[in-house]
Design a protein that fits this description.
Layout (H helix, E strand, L loop, with lengths): L2 H4 L4 H10 L6 E3 L2 E3 L6 E5 L6 E6 L3 H17 L7 H17 L1 H12 L3 H22 L6 E2 L6 E9 L2 E5 L5 H14 L3 E5 L7 H11 L7 E3 L4 H10 L5 E5 L2 H13 L4 E5 L5 E4 L6 H13 L11 E5 L3 H15 L18 H16 L3 E4 L16 E4 L6 H4 L6 E7 L2 H9 L6 E5 L3 H10 L4 E4 L18 E2 L4 H7 L1 E9 L2
Parallel strand pairs: 7-8, 7-10, 8-9, 10-11, 12-13, 12-17, 13-16, 15-16, 17-18
Antiparallel strand pairs: 1-2, 3-4, 5-6, 6-20, 11-19, 14-15
Helix pairs in contact: 3-9, 4-6, 4-8, 5-6, 6-7, 11-12
Length: about 500
C-alpha cells in the first residue's frame, strides 16, 4: 500500500495490518539476510504496550567485519562507485519511489518500535525520507571537478571521488528519516554503506536495505548490522577499513566516535548531537497566539524526543503571564497521549521504560530546584502499561536549573523570563549546545541582530522547524560538527584528488 492509500486507514485498519506484520529480524550483508555469527538476539519492545515485537539478530565485531568486507569489495569493484552518474541517479529515484510504495510497512515498524504516532510517519517521516533520497539523487551529476590556470607546460585538474566505506550510526527518535539523512548522501557520492540502526528501533533498516536491491542497487553496497551501540557502533568506529562515520545521537557518544576514529585509522567523523533549543518571544511579537502554537509544537512534537526540541521558552517579562496562560490553554488539546496506531493520536509513548524513568527524573529535579509545575509531570491515567509521560510545563525557571541546562529528550518545557534582547541572547547562548533557536519579533533589525548573535547552526525567525532539503542541518559547540541535508553534506562524503601533469 502506497503513501496516499495509507492516509485513508483508520485505527482499526492500522491494528489489522499490525497483526499481520512479520518483520525481518536478520542482518543484511552482501545482498542477503543472514543471522548473527554467534546466533545471539535481543528483544524489540513495543513502548506503547510493553509487548515483545520480535527477537532481532544481535551483531558484534565479527558481523561488522563481515559487513565492512562486503562493502569494501563492492566499492573496489566499481560496481557502484564507478557506475555512470545517471544510472546511479535512476536507481536512487526508483528507491525513493519504493519508500513511498511501502508506506504501511515503514509506518508500522517505526511506530511499533519507538511509539511515534502513525500519522507522523505518514505525513512527515516517510515523505521526508523519500524526498531525501530524491534530493541527493539530483545532486549526483552536480559534482564538478576543476581545471586550474597553470603554466603552458603544465596541466592540473582536481577530481572529487567517494571516500569508500561509510558507517552510518543513527538514533531511535526518527529511525527511517535519520537513516535516510545519513545513507542517501553517502550512496549518492558513490560510497558503500554499513548502517547500524539504534537497538531500540532496529526493524525498518532491513526494509531499506531490501528495497535498495529491489531498486536495482548492487549487492554489498548497502549493508545493515543490528546490535548494541557498545558492540556494533563501537566496532564500526574502530574498524580500520571504514573511511567515515556519520553519526546522530547523544553528545556523549558523539565524543566517543571521535575518540575511536583517532584510535584507529583517523577516519572522518561527522556528528549531529544534542540540543537545548531556545524559543525567544520578544515583546513586539506580532501574533502571540501563533508564537504559542509554534512553541507547543516545538517542544511536544515527537514526544519531545527531538535534538532540536524547543525546550527553553524565553519570554519577555511583559508577555510572560499572557504567554503562559495561552500555552496552558492551547496545550490541553494540542498533544494528547494515546494509542500511536490511531491516526487521531498526537502523542505516543517515550521509546523505553528507561527513557520514561529518565524524563520523570528530570521532572522531579525541576520541582526540587524550585521550579513551578504548571501542568503535566506524570504518567497519563490509563496508559501505565506503556512508556508515556504527559506534556509538562515548568514556570519560575532560571538557566542554572538542571531542567534548563540538560537535554531531557522528552515533553518537558521550561519558561524563562527576560527583560530585553541582550539578556535573551545571553540566556540563549548560556549552554554547551548550539543546534537551533527561534526568534519571534516584528522588528526586522532586531531579528537580524538576534540571528547574528545567537550561537546556533539553525535560526528560525517567526517560525519554528521550517526548512527544506537545501537547509544545512547541524550545530555549534557540543551539538556536533558537519551538516545533514543540503549539498554540502554530499561533498562531505567525497575527497579531492589533485592530478598535475607536465606536458612539456
Amino acid at each position: 500500500m502506497n503513501l496516499e492509500q495509507a492516509k485513508s486507514l483508520d485505527k482499526k485498519g492500522w491494528h489489522r495490518y499490525a497483526g499481520e506484520l512479520k518483520p525481518e529480524t536478520r542482518m543484511f550483508i552482501d545482498g542477503e539476510f543472514v543471522d548473527a555469527k554467534k546466533g545471539r538476539t535481543f528483544k524489540s519492545i513495543n513502548p506503547a504496550t510493553g509487548e515483545v515485537i520480535a527477537e532481532v539478530a544481535r551483531g558484534n565485531g565479527d558481523d561488522v567485519d563481515r559487513a565492512v568486507k562486503s562493502a569494501r569489495k563492492a566499492f573496489k569493484s566499481g560496481v557502484w562507485s564507478r557506475m555512470a552518474p545517471r544510472d546511479r541517479m535512476d536507481i536512487l529515484y526508483r528507491y525513493a519511489e519504493l519508500i513511498r510504495e511501502h508506506a504501511v510497512e515503514f509506518a508500522l515498524l517505526d511506530t511499533l518500535n519507538m511509539g511515534k504516532p502513525i500519522s507522523d510517519m505518514i505525513n512527515s517521516d516517510i515523505p521526508g525520507s523519500a524526498l531525501t533520497f530524491q534530493y541527493f539523487a539530483e545532486t549526483i551529476d552536480k559534482i564538478d571537478g576543476q581545471v586550474t590556470n597553470t603554466a603552458a607546460t603544465e596541466f592540473h585538474y582536481i577530481l572529487r571521488e567517494p571516500l569508500g566505506v561509510v558507517g552510518c550510526v543513527v538514533p531511535w527518535n526518527y529511525p527511517l528519516m535519520m537513516a535516510a539523512w545519513k545513507v542517501a548522501p553517502a550512496l549518492a557520492a558513490g560510497n558503500c554503506v554499513v548502517l547500524k540502526p539504534a537497538e531500540q528501533s532496529p526493524l525498518s533498516a532491513n526494509v531499506m536495505a531490501r528495497l535498495f536491491i529491489e531498486a536495482g542497487g548492487p549487492a554489498g553496497v548497502f549493508n545493515v548490522v543490528q546490535g548494541l551501540g557498545e558492540e556494533v557502533g563501537k566496532a564500526l568506529a574502530l574498524h580500520m577499513d571504514v573511511d567515515k562515520i556519520a553519526f546522530t545521537g547523544s553528545t556523549e557518544v558523539g565524543k566517543l566516535m571521535m575518540v575511536y576514529a583517532g584510535q584507529s585509522n583517523m577516519k572522518r567523523v561527522t556528528t549531529e548531537c544534542g540540543g537545548k533549543t531556545p524559543q525567544i518571544v520578544l515583546g513586539d511579537v506580532e501574533n502571540l497566539d501563533t508564537a504559542v502554537e509554534y512553541a507547543i509544537n516545538g517542544i511536544y512534537g515527537n514526544q519531545g524526543e527531538v535534538c532540536n526540541a524547543g525546550s527553553r521558552l524565553l519570554v519577555d517579562v511583559k508577555l510572560h503571564d499572557a504567554f503562559v496562560e495561552r500555552f496552558k490553554e492551547k496545550s490541553k488539546t494540542a498533544f494528547v497521549p494515546g494509542d500511536p496506531l490511531d491516526p487521531k493520536t498526537s502523542m505516543g509513548p517515550l521509546v523505553t521504560k528507561e527513557q520514561q524513568k529518565r524524563v520523570l527524573g528530570y521532572i522531579s529535579a525541576g520541582k526540587e530546584e524550585g521550579a513551578t509545575l504548571a501542568f503535566g509531570g506524570a504518567v497519563p491515567e490509563g496508559l501505565e502499561a506503556g512508556c508515556y509521560v504527559a506534556p509538562t510545563l515548568f514556570t519560575g525557571v532560571n538557566n542554572k536549573m538542571k531542567i534548563a541546562r540538560e537535554e531531557i529528550f522528552g515533553p518537558v518545557a521550561a519558561v524563562l523570563p527576560f527583560k530585553d534582547l541582550a539578556q535573551a541572547v545571553e540566556i540563549a547562548n548560556d549552554t554547551s549546545y548550539g543546534l537551533a533557536a527561534s526568534i519571534w519579533t516584528s522588528n526586522v533589525n532586531i531579528a537580524h541582530k538576534a540571528a547574528r548573535d545567537i550561537e546556533a547552526g539553525i535560526v528560525w525567525v517567526n517560525c519554528f522547524d521550517h526548512g527544506d532539503m537545501t537547509q544545512p542541518w547541524g550545530g555549534y559547540k557540543q551539538s556536533g560538527q558537519g551538516r545533514d541535508k543540503c549539498f554540502e553534506t554530499m561533498l562531505h562524503h567525497t575527497q579531492t584528488k589533485s592530478v598535475w601533469m607536465h606536458i612539456g
